[in-house]
C-alpha cells in the first residue's frame, strides 16, 4: 500500500522554526516529484514548495521564498520542509503529495499529484 505520513507539526511562536517530515512507504520517492501544500480554514489549498525527481530542483512561491526549504533524503525515503521565520499567516494544515515523473522541473498544481498524506497542523501564535 502506497502511503505518505507527515509529522513535525505543532505550535510555535512567530519567528520560530519547525521541520516537517514526509515519510513514504510502499514506494520509492526517488522517482517522484514531491510537494508540500497547505490549507488554512476558509482558504484555498496553496502549494508552498516542490522538489523534482531529477536534480532535486526546487520551487517556492513568493509567500515562503527565503523562509522555507524543501529537501529529500532518499536513503530514508523521506522529504522534509524546513520552515523558518514563521508568521501567523503560515498557520494551516500542511500536506505532502507525490506523483511519479522523471523530470528536472516541479510544479505546484495540486491536480498533478495523486498520492497525499493525511496532513499535520502547524499553528503560529504567541
Give me a quick take on this structure.
The protein has no helices and eleven strands. By secondary structure, the chain is mainly beta. The chain starts with a strand and ends with a strand.
* Total DSSP helices: 0
Structural class: mainly beta
Characterize the largest beta sheet: strand count, sense, and whether it forms a barrel.
7 strands, mixed
User: Can you give the helix content as a percent range?
Assistant: under 10%
State the total count of DSSP E strands: 11
What is the CA-atom radius of gyration, in angstroms? 13 Å
User: What is the typical, i.e. mean, pLDDT?
Assistant: 95
| Low confidence ranges | none
Tell me what the structure shows.
- There is one protein chain.
- By secondary structure, the chain is mainly beta.
- It contains no helices and 11 strands.
- A hairpin with a 6-residue loop joins β5 and β6.
Key attributes of the depicted protein:
126 residues; 7-stranded mixed beta sheet; 4-stranded antiparallel beta sheet; 11 strands; 0% helix
Secondary structure layout:
Elements: E1 3-7, E2 10-12, E3 18-25, E4 32-39, E5 46-51, E6 58-59, E7 68-73, E8 78-83, E9 92-100, E10 115-116, E11 120-124
Parallel strand pairs: 2-11
Antiparallel strand pairs: 1-3, 3-8, 4-5, 4-9, 5-6, 7-8, 9-10, 9-11
Amino acid at each position: 500500500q502506497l502511503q505518505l505520513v507527515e509529522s513535525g507539526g505543532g505550535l510555535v511562536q512567530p519567528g520560530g522554526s519547525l521541520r516537517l517530515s514526509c515519510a513514504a512507504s510502499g514506494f520509492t520517492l526517488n522517482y517522484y516529484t514531491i510537494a508540500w501544500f497547505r490549507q488554512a480554514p476558509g482558504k484555498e489549498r496553496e502549494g508552498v514548495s516542490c522538489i523534482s525527481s531529477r536534480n532535486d530542483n526546487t520551487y517556492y512561491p513568493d509567500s515562503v521564498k527565503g523562509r522555507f526549504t524543501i529537501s529529500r533524503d532518499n536513503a530514508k525515503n523521506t522529504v522534509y520542509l524546513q520552515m523558518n521565520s514563521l508568521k501567523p499567516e503560515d498557520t494551516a494544515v500542511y500536506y505532502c503529495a507525490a506523483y511519479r515523473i522523471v523530470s528536472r522541473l516541479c510544479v505546484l498544481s495540486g491536480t498533478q499529484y495523486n498520492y497525499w498524506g493525511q496532513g499535520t497542523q502547524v499553528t503560529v501564535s504567541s
